[in-house]
Amino acid sequence: MKVKNQDVAGLCARLNRFITELSSSASANVHGNVSAADQTRLGTYLSALVRYHDWVEAAPELDLPKTHPTEYEITGSGAPLTPTSNESVNDVIRMLESCRAELAGSQSAQLAAGLTEHDSVRFSAIVEKAANFLTEYIAKTSPLDQPESAPAAASS
């Protein structure tokens, strides 16, 4: 998918990076547990998304007649990643993938830069939901003891 908005491209690139980090994290293949280190990293990723969004929102409106409509490729916006063994990691990845898809298909994606009010609110709501999931669910339930449904063989 391609967008014409440099700020949407920047947000989507960060979402892609954080999705990749989560899907490759140590917790991704551990059933029922998101490690303290991965919880800290996830919190940092979500904070970075909020800060970048806030920076975009604070930036002046740009008039770019010589460079707009440059198109930016949004990688990873196709099929969702293969699920990990960790339901909580999968939940966060789905939220971030939804955020990326909503941005890439948004009205803002056609602008040179910036976000429309509705797209900004949508982005913030999804990131806030992920942050609340981290603090209100993951942090309060990890680790879960689930010996009957944990993989019988070590994952490769």
Describe the structure.
The structure is a single chain. The protein has helices at residues 6-23, 36-58, 87-104, 117-141, and strands at residues 2-3, 72-73. Helix 1 (6-23) packs antiparallel against helix 3, helix 2 runs antiparallel to helix 4 (117-141) and helix 3 (87-104) packs antiparallel against helix 4 (117-141). It has four helices and two strands. A two-stranded antiparallel ribbon has the order 1-2. The longest helix has 25 residues, at 117-141. With 156 residues, the chain is mainly alpha-helical. The protein has one domain (2-141). Helix content is 54%, strand content 3%.
What keywords describe this structure?
156 residues; mainly alpha; two-stranded antiparallel sheet; 3% strand; disordered C terminus
Report Rg: 17 Å
**The biggest beta sheet, please?**
2 strands, antiparallel
* Fraction of helical residues: 40-55%
> Low-confidence parts lasting 5 or more residues at pLDDT below 50?
152-156
Count helical runs.
4
Indicate the proportion of strand residues: under 5%
Question: What's the layout of helices and strands?
Answer:
Layout: E1 2-3, H1 6-23, H2 36-58, E2 72-73, H3 87-104, H4 117-141
Helix pairs in contact: 1-2, 1-3, 2-4, 3-4
Structure described in brief:
The chain has 156 residues and is mainly alpha-helical. It has four helices and two strands, in the order βααβαα. The chain has a two-stranded antiparallel sheet with strand order 1-2.
